[in-house]
Amino acid sequence: MNAEARGGRSAQLKHTGLRPGWTTGACATAATTAAYTALLTGDFPDPVTITLPKGQTPAFALALEELTAGPGETVAMAGVVKDAGDDPDVTHGALVRSTVRRLPPGSGVVFRAGPGVGTVTLPGLPLDVGEPAVNPVPRRLMREHVERVAAEHGGTGDVEITVSVDHGEEIARSTWNGRLGILGGLSILGTTGVVVPYSCSAWIDSIRRGVDVAQAAGLTHVAGCTGSTSEKTVVSEYGLPDIALLDMGDFAGAVLKYVRRHPVARLTICGGFAKLSKLAAGHLDLHSARSQVDKPFLAELARRGGADETLASRIATANTGLEALRLCEAANVPLGDLVAARARDEALSVLRGAPVAVDVICIDRAGVVVGRG
Predict the structure, then answer these.
(1) Nearest C-alpha neighbor of 98 from the set 145, 59, 41
(2) Quick one: which of 69, 84, 70 has its CA closest to 25?
(3) Angstrom distance (rounded) from CA 180 to CA 357
(4) Which pLDDT score, from 0 to 100, does residue 323 have?
(5) Residue 3, pLDDT score
(6) Half-sphere exposure (CA, 13 Å, Cβ side) for 128?
(7) What residues pair up with 340 in beta bridges, in sequence order?
(8) Ramachandran angles phi, psi of 101, nearest 5°
(9) Less Cβ around it within 10 Å: N or C end of the chain?
């Protein structure tokens, strides 16, 4: 077997032996697709197949289906039970429902938060205040599938989609939603539709294997990426092959400590601004359950970059790292570069003089580069 077949992100996942699962966004998309199909045809597809952003076509069994004829309209509801695979996800086993009803032509797709789905009440998230906590990628997936169903069955594609999660408000107490100002339930999440399972020992072992395979192939430049969006950024920036990409996830320390013992000429670390602000603050485990964005730390960095006290105070009390970044962008304070540079310094301190050149790229949720160090 050649090194290309043994390395890279997909090989890492296979090496762990862990079973991937599906995000709440994928489940909501499947439920929406089934409900809208039933609204147009009278029949629920079961299982219902959807297409995810990377081309996977999983099929979902329906746990619930209901077609209700009311005064002047028919409403369809479908439910899918979330399977998070081997990931210890608090939403594993949750019942995700989508209720779809027709809207007048030209209305487009309108999203509502049903029971168990939160509403955004504070700025700093990728959704406006007052919006249901259905994130941008799941919204796009649902719109795309509504369009496909409409084209296939003669609908207009103008619908209201109400997403709900049974016991979602209770489950949300085990998340950080309340602190982020998402009230009333869970967020509908997912950028790829796939839940990548993280067992600490298994995933760290897969990172080490990834470094070994890249070195065996003669590569001198590898990249530790926090997810699929940062992976795309690195490929766009440097044209690195798949075998050079390490799915670092939250385990920045694992990458750095192994590369310290097994040096490569160059290491790029790429990830979301908020996650890398944790590395900049000295955290080597970037998981939200084990480290948080330190807004006072960001405020101090911003002061060094020219922020006045008024701006620094707003950053220190910001709802999210993204809000702090946007405040600085509006004031022409290069917080993204400051975080990237500080994260690079922290990485170099962990490397302890190992002959490895390090650069850091911070991105926002859309994959736009917001900082380099």
Answers:
(1) 145
(2) 84
(3) 36
(4) 92
(5) 44
(6) 3
(7) none
(8) -135, 155
(9) N
Cβ contact 38:44 at 8 Å: yes
Give the CB-side neighbour count of residue 283, counting CA atoms within 13 A: 20
Radius of gyration over every alpha carbon of the chain, rounded to an integer in angstroms: 22
Provide the strand spans (E) within the chain. 21-22, 48-49, 59-60, 64-70, 73-81, 95-102, 109-113, 116-117, 119-120, 159-165, 182-183, 185-186, 194-195, 221-225, 245-247, 266-272, 357-363, 369-372
- Successive 10-residue mean pLDDT values, the chain, 373 residues: 50 68 94 97 96 93 92 91 80 94 96 96 86 95 98 96 96 82 91 71 76 89 91 94 87 93 96 94 78 91 95 94 94 97 96 97 93 96
Residue 207 tokens read as 């990172």
Give the end-to-end CA distance of the chain in Å, rounded to a whole number.
37
For 213, list phi and psi in degrees, rounded to 5: -65, -40
pTM (whole model) above 0.85 = no
Residue whose pair of structure tokens reads 């917080």 in the numeric block: 335
Closest Cα to residue 88, out of 168, 10, 202, 166?
A: 202
Residue 217, helix vs strand vs coil:
coil
Locate 117 and state its tokens: 């789905």
